[in-house]
Design a protein that fits this description.
Helices cover about 75% and strands about 0% of the residues. By secondary structure, it is mainly alpha-helical. Helix 1 packs antiparallel against helix 9 and helix 7 packs across helix 8.
């Protein structure tokens, strides 16, 4: 039992450490993405629908540089164990079902979807809190206060609001990402994996996979954000779809796509690069 658990623990630690590095570095992009998707904080100097640079500048002017890292505590509380759980689950599945073979494209999608669903369901309360911290709409002073306030006013439903679009966003993203990442790695000459270029190769494969996956799953991210910020306004995912389509049209589903694409691409690429390096260090490969 201990021998089986030891690699699992290593995979969890490698994933958590990779999640910590990427979350801290790219939190400002996630903050700007959330603000872009929220009309209440996307109205600056008498103008609505401002862009990414304007929001960046406005945050620095009003909240100084540290304002770009607003929501860091819930982000770390969500991403560190969440990424650890994802990589841990992925490692267990790959070890048990693909120990001697490389997963085919559809199998890679399945592995990513299952792993992300498990971590996404477990971490959904922290996802709700993280989104609200970043939005600038709620005045929570701490994660504990946010948990108590949400539970007091909205109950368990409030702690899990937006779960469906979160899974619709994250599960396909992770599945598509793993497929693109695995296929990109196959195109790289094997000699490069035993050279000083190992980390840049992993990072480049991650960037490519992240760009493609982010674009496909952006609409679900918009729906998730709106459901978590305004739970009393929408009765379900269909009501959010109708609202976005009526108010903004098709382009509304891609609000915040640039900062999200930059963040998700860089975060995931870095997470996989650090994870690959740590798994080699820990002797998991």
């Amino acid at each position: 039992m201990e021998q089986k658990m030891y690699p699992v623990l290593k995979a969890f630690l490698a994933g958590s450490l990779s999640g910590t590095c990427s979350t801290v570095l790219f939190q400002p992009l996630d903050l700007v993405k959330t603000r872009l998707q929220n009309p209440a904080t996307n109205y600056i100097n008498g103008r609505n629908g401002v862009g990414m640079v304007t929001i960046f500048t406005n945050i620095i002017q009003k909240e100084q540089i540290k304002g770009l890292w607003k929501g860091m505590t819930p982000s770390l509380s969500r991403c560190v164990p969440g990424v650890g759980l994802y990589f841990c689950t992925l490692d267990v599945l790959k070890t048990n079902f693909f120990s001697d073979t490389t997963p085919r494209p559809l199998e890679s999608i399945g592995l990513g979807v299952v792993s992300r669903c498990i971590s996404g369901i477990i971490m959904i309360p922290m996802t709700v809190i993280k989104t609200r911290f970043e939005s600038g709409v709620y005045g929570y002073q701490s994660v504990n206060q946010a948990i108590k306030e949400i539970y007091r006013t909205e109950g368990l439903k409030g702690m899990t609001c937006g779960l469906v679009p979160t899974l619709i966003r994250d599960a396909p993203y992770s599945g598509l990402y793993l497929m693109f990442y695995t296929e990109c790695k196959k195109l790289v000459p094997k000699d490069l994996y035993n050279s000083p270029y190992t980390s840049p190769v992993h990072f480049t494969c991650g960037l490519t996979a992240g760009i493609l996956s982010s674009i496909v799953t952006q609409p679900a991210d918009v729906l998730k954000t709106k459901m978590q910020l305004y739970p009393h306004k929408f009765s379900g995912i269909w009501s959010v779809i109708v609202y976005v389509n009526t108010k903004y049209g098709v382009r509304g589903y891609f609000k915040g796509v640039v900062p999200r694409m930059l963040r998700r691409t860089l975060v995931t690429a870095m997470a996989w690069t650090v994870y690959e390096r740590l798994t080699n260090t820990f002797g998991l490969k």
